Amino acid sequence: MLTTIRGGLDPLMVKYNESLSLDRAFYAQDIAGSIAYARANQGAGILSADEFQKIEEGLQAVLREWKDGAFVVKSDVDERLWLRDELRELENCVVNLLHVFISRAKSELDPIMPGYTHLQRAQPIRWSHWLLNYGFFFAQDLQRLQGLIPRVNRLPLGCGALSGNVFGIDREAMAKELGFDGLCWNSMNAVSDRDFLVETMQWAAMLMTHISRISEDLIIYSSQEFGFVTLSDAYSTGSSIMPQKKVGTKPPTAQIQRVAHKIF
Fold this sequence. Notes:
Blueprint: H1 11-17, H2 20-23, H3 27-43, H4 49-68, H5 79-107, E1 112-117, E2 120-126, H6 127-152, E3 154-155, H7 171-178, E4 182-183, H8 187-192, H9 195-221, H10 252-259
Helix pairs in contact: 3-4, 3-7, 5-6, 6-9, 9-10
């Protein structure tokens, strides 16, 4: 005979199971998804126009409280909606970075520098050639990101906990309202799928590897032994105990970026 042990959660379990401190990032997307779902329920005849209006007004009030830092989290979030917005922002960042590489390569076409293999001088190259070397790395990152976003940007809302729902809501209308490219068609797949999160991490790891590589080159090329580049004082600091070290010789910004890929 099975015995059920009743009582409250152990404090250790509460702490282990807690995710609200991380989920806070999703508040705007979660509220937008809730409004869209309520609107779909109105369209299906489950909610009246007055009920929907009250729900929307309440959620808009919650949104304002969130922005003011006065709201206590008590709800789930939409990972896809938040991740889609973040990836689009990253897409803009990569595009802007590529514009910088192209602009600098065009305006700095003439400078010649040594090309290295195994940290030994091998053949002369143009500085612009070195720049576009990394430009192509980041262009490939952009292509991978643009292939990833449509797989992230599919609406799971309306799939329920496992087998969908019987309310007859218009999922395509919700997808249009929230800016999704399409739907998650299988409810079981939708609620269990985490591939889009893993794929995002894979993409981010590749991006940070390329950032790490160019940062390492800049650290070397800005040293007194090489002296090919001088980094702006706005992005460099000197040593606290070795004043002979020129600002930019050991750029902390590049040092941080070189190892930041370890966060993945």
